[in-house]
Amino acid sequence: MYRTHTCGDLRAEQAGQTVTLCGWVDTTRDHGKGMFIDLRDRYGITQVCITPDSTEADSAAAKELGREFVVRIDGTVHLRPAGQENPKHLTGAIEVHVTRLEILNASATPPFLPSQKDLPGEDLRLKYRYLDLRRPKMQKTLELRSAVIKRMRDYFESHRFIDVETPILGRSTPEGARDYLVPSRVHPGSFYALPQSPQLYKQILMVAGYDRYVQVARCFRDEDLLSLIHI
User: Fold this and answer.
1) What digits encode the pLDDT tens for the residues 14-73?
2) What CA–CA distance (Å, rounded) separates 171 from 192?
3) How do residues 160-179 score in pLDDT, each as one tens digit?
4) How far apart are CA 60 and CA 89, in angstroms?
5) Distance CA 31, CA 50 (A)
6) What is the architecture of the domain spanning 12-105?
7) For the chain, what are the domain ranges?
8) For a designed S-S bond to 132, which of 31, 69, 125, 195 qualifies (C-beta 3.0 to 4.6 A apart)?
9) Environment class of residue 104 by beta-carbon count within 10 Å: exposed (0-12), middle (13-18) or buried (19+)?
10) CB burial class (10 A; 0-12, 13-18, 19+) of residue 47?
């Protein structure tokens, strides 16, 4: 089992429980006799502690950790000492004392960190898109998009609409912009066109009797910025 809880789940009520967590190393703080690790996944951050009671192997492994290392830990949930709670995190009332630490994947020094405030340019963020998608703002944006689409689909389903995915590859149809073309492997010299709108498929569905259909459509339009400005 890779985890029993996410890094955003644990609360004071779980004190005393044995848990398994997985995530990225957000920060580490070495205090000599002990070491604190902020373990992060997309659900939150949990403070993990290497204590004097931890094994030498776990202590040695903890000293090797770098930012964005992927680790799995087994440990026991403890309440933080009074006055040391962190109200910035939902898990701020607890910490997990490690009984076993495993490095699942080491990481080279990342070109930027998901938690940093001053972000690099978009070119670098797109080159390392997987890091960019770990940022809390990006996570919230994707969660919001998912929630909006679900609410929309729930509404249409309640009104007896059918959710249909229409084809991405099809024949070219006259539109206001140029087509994106995809060569056919089995028909040399022929090309598919990426649809600029699902209008053709909508008409087929209507003729077939699907009077209520809905789709979150993918549209591909090859338009110059200059032509958009003139509209």
Assistant:
1) 999 999 999 999 999 998 778 999 999 999 999 999 998 889 999 999 999 999 999 999
2) 6
3) 999 999 888 887 777 677 88
4) 28
5) 10
6) Beta Barrel (2.40)
7) 12-105, 110-159, 161-231
8) 125
9) exposed
10) buried
